[in-house]
Amino acid sequence: MPEKDALVRLRKTTERVRKDLKDFRKAALGWGPFDPAHDRAGYIPVMNGKDWKKLSTLARALQKQSRKSLAAIDKSRKKLLSVLPLLDALDRVAPELPPPLLKIKGWKEQRQKLAAGLRKKGLSPDKIEAILKAEEKRDFKKAPGQLRATLDPAIARIEKASQRRIASLMGAVHADAVSRFNTAWKKPAAFNPGKAQSWCRSNYAMLLNGEKAVWQLLREGKPEKAAAEAAKLARKAEAELVPGAELAASVAARRRQPGAGAADNVAALWIAEIIRGLLRAIALGYVTEGALAWGAKTDPTQEWVRAAKLPFTGYESPPAIAVRQFKKRKSGQEVTLTGVVTSVSITHRAGKAVSAVKIASDKDSEITAALSHIKLDSGGMVPGAIVRVTGTWTDSISWLPGGPALVVKRLSYGELGKKGWRDWVTGAIRDVYAPVPHGLAAIWSWEPGVDGAGNPLYYGVWYEN
């Protein structure tokens, strides 16, 4: 392409980008401020009243509202996406763009002519010199990249606005599952261990293979196909939420019946963990729908493509042992314990929450799991729950009078996300949904009632604000 034609394309593309950014700023004013934390005010009175049907109605209304807002934001996203092919075309002709003016033969003579023309327009000598020096500093070959970079603040704003609506949407999805769970709890189906095991295994495989497919497509540099795969996984996960909630209700009822045993506790724990995995997959689908739309030359798509170079791994806790088997208690030892929560105590020291959770395997074996600055029950770790928790056994704790305890471990997904893809994803989606609130190295069963599976909604910790 001749040099002149390349400059024409640069000018026209610049005009188009500026116009679309102006339209974007105008549209963004209509989005208004939005904070998903405000949804909590709607959840609390409904849950206090144990009106699970009303909770479902509220959840569906919030989902509808969130999707409407996301559709409006997506219009702006598509508007900016329509500019990217123009920028790609500009990249291809960048080699034909002229070098800086100072390197062009005959520039001195041309400079004098331009200065004369500007003087005729009445510009002062200082103003003329400033204009010419600014033009001399321009590097036309760098202009395509600089023009693309002007989109970055708008893209970041679109993604941030989307995240806040997706956080509201995910709270509502969680709320609907809690409603189904508590409704089923009122008249639970008889617990079928074989059915529960089959459901857990098939969904574990579905979630693992689905996420691995997303990861593999990103490794191959196919973000659009990866987004489609994530959306497909999210649809499958949504379809399994109601069966999962009903299974969780049936096993919760079974655990409260005479003759219930360890196998029922294990089933309750893993059904709840699969439900968390389903919710995680749904969040992944919503986040990647926007994040992977921008193309491999633009953030945030680039972030996901880079992250896919990490191995497909995630944090693994030490092998779990029952509380009754935890005999050799050495201070500083990291250990994973399982048992049933018998009580939760929340006190305050220096204005900060201190949690002490009693966990037992039987009436003769009990330990305390503790953590400062966090209410452990806010995520659903409540009396009656079966729990699997990792922490450091500590003989003496300044903020916890009364003897030794297991100080619950909190996972830093910022650090873990540098080592493995699955932890990177958990960190990437936590602004919209945190499967395990506060990054606790723990999992627990879903428990019915006001104080249970709905606690992340009640305390506003279903996402990291």
Polypeptide structure, described:
The chain is elongated. Helix 9 (193-219) packs antiparallel against helix 10 (223-255) and helix 10 (223-255) runs antiparallel to helix 11 (262-291). A hairpin with a 2-residue loop joins strand 2 (334-349) and strand 3. It contains 15 helices and seven strands. Helices cover 56% and strands 12% of the residues. The protein has two domains: 3-33 and 40-89 and 148-307, no CATH class; 320-420 and 432-458, Beta Barrel (OB fold (Dihydrolipoamide Acetyltransferase, E2P)), CATH 2.40.50.140. The two termini are 51 Å apart. It is an alpha+beta fold and 465 residues long. The protein has a five-stranded mixed β-barrel. The mean pLDDT is 93.
